[in-house]
Specification:
The complex is a heterodimer of chains A (508) and B (157).
Chain A: H1 3-14, H2 17-35, H3 41-53, H4 57-82, H5 93-102, H6 106-139, H7 144-161, H8 166-180, E1 183-184, E2 191-192, H9 206-224, H10 244-265, H11 271-286, H12 299-314, H13 316-322, H14 328-339, H15 348-351, H16 353-374, H17 378-384, H18 389-405, H19 411-429, H20 435-457, H21 464-467, H22 469-494
Antiparallel strand pairs in A: 1-2
Helix pairs in contact in A: 1-16, 2-4, 2-16, 3-4, 3-9, 3-14, 3-18, 4-5, 4-6, 4-12, 4-14, 4-16, 5-12, 6-10, 6-12, 6-13, 6-16, 7-8, 7-20, 7-22, 8-20, 9-18, 9-19, 10-11, 10-12, 11-12, 14-20
Chain B: E1 5-7, H1 8-30, E2 36-37, E3 40-41, H2 45-67, E4 73-75, H3 79-102, H4 104-119, H5 124-145
Antiparallel strand pairs in B: 1-4, 2-3
Helix pairs in contact in B: 1-2, 3-4, 4-5
The chains are: A mainly alpha (508), B mainly alpha (157).
Chain lengths: 508, 157
Amino acid sequence: MDSLDGILYGLSVAFTFNNLLAALVGALAGTLIGVLPGLGPTAGIAMILPLSYSLDPTSGLIMMAGMFYGAMYGGSTTAILVNMPGESASVITCLDGYKLTKKGRAGAVLTIVAAGSFVGGVISVIGVMLFAPALAEVGLLFGPAEFFALTAGGLLLFSRISGGSLAAGIFPMAIGLMLSTVGQEAVTGQDRFTFGIAELTLGVELVALVVGLYGIAEIMSVVETLQKQVKPLPVKLRDMFPSRQEWRRSVAPYGRGTILGFIFGLLPGPSATLASFAAYRLEKSVSKYKHELGEGAIEGVAGPETANNAAATSSMVPLLALGIPFGSVTALMLAAMMVHGVQPGPMMMTAHPQVFWGVIASMLVGNVMLVILNVPLVSVWVSLLRVPNHVFLPIILMMASIGCYSVRNSMLDVGMLLVVSLIGYTLRKLEFQLAPMVVGLVLGPLIEKHLREGLFMSLGEISVFYTSPIAIVIWALVIVVLLLEPLRQLAARMLGIKVKKIIPESSE
Amino acid sequence: MTSHSISKRTAYLSTGGLGLLLSACYLAMASQLPFGEMDAPGAGLFPVLVGGILGFASMATIWEGWKAAHTLGIDMPVGQDRLRLFKLIALLALYFTTMPWLGYSLSSWVFATLLMRLLSTLPLLRCAAYAALMTGVIYVCFIYFLKVPMPTFALTF
């Protein structure tokens, strides 16, 4: 099936009633999650993960994907209106978005953002459509050594690129890997680190970890700073129309943001966040109005918001084509696929074409839904920001406990929520990154599988992991990227050359 | 550094120290697992590698703490903010502990009432009424319609 046949088949899957409903629910829930503080896309998706188990795999994944890019849309609303990003990818939007709001252009900016997110999302879907099958073909050449390089190297890169210092990335990653070894081992059935607790033989529950780290830990921060909340001004429908000049100035940032976002989505790391920061930097370098950036320029909103949506969409490529999640949200999607018995990777396109093409095609449908939901209904989303904390926080916490318990009817998982949220809150205070822990937990078993398969197939020859040409290229890329930052520091110290920081301070 | 913060140096050194301790315990337990042969690796191989990575990561944390300037601090909540946070943690602990005994709905109602009281200036009775409404909606959506099997108290409620 070529790409065109594939997408036509995917559209026939996406246009069934169940899948349209799943896309709509996902898009709605995602926008809601993005708008509300205290719940990002990762925690939100983790909470609905158990519900997706009761749907068929295609509908479940369509709903989760809808939530992901829906949250990208919704996150920008709070960034623009109250200077408070709904999720990390919208942090940079605050700079110019809020200044434009203060100038009375809030409605117009929200429309520009919705249009940009649509453009970025749709063009990125076309890219996914063309690129994913090609990557899956390459993936067929991969054996255990190559997959080991991709998963282990990708995790290393991810933890380093996630932001902050070396320890801020690799310490949580190591904890995630450690947690992944808890439970019954896949090959021999040996119990590891279960301490005789029967519920632990199934391993550490991903939903409990993610909801605790991202959901409840964030709620703790919201409760801590309760008195510093800002309420938004109302946005009327008649204020939603941008001027001709605003449209004109947004066209080039849309294009640049889409290309940049698509590329970032293919790489390991918090792609949407990094893409939005990179798009802002790019605008600052090349825009005709760069002198206005930071003071309320439309380019500072259009570029980053287009880029984060494009990246959210293209981050599906490594997941669908190679079966490797390069972010915490795609890690959750991988977990959902595993539960449904769908093995993502090079064979997915032939083994489960309805899932592969259905999910891709649903993104086109979902992006159209989001524009319809976001532009005319913006006043509804804004009014949600006025819902007091004492109403929505108990609701979120009650739903979190349902989401967590219902995965395997275990009170241990619910109890773990509290422990994990305290760890998450502390690690955030220490400016550690949480995403490497989640990705470590998900990739740990895959890394172990490929390591053991590689050793088994090569009769114990370790050189198998660094002699294959593909593995060499992957490791070389990993080493080059890992060495960039130390080399920058060395150059700065020895030669007095000032180079901009390659790794951001924080991406969460 | 103000009275609102703790030293970053101390925090990182403590975290790294705890990490080292954890990696030592983990490695000790991992070494009890069968290691297998190189051509047929056992269940212990990967945990030993992970223990090593955790040890390295902990040392990196200690190193960063050691190198951190004494003036660098990590902001911590104080006063009412800290009290509110501690109360939230206590409420969550109470909620999760009582859920198997009181059932999901009853424990959720108590939890929501107390949390609303903590986060607002509403009188207790109004908080209880709002909490009952919220719990009811969640019960109908998730337990009645979606059949999520949550712990129950009496009369399957």
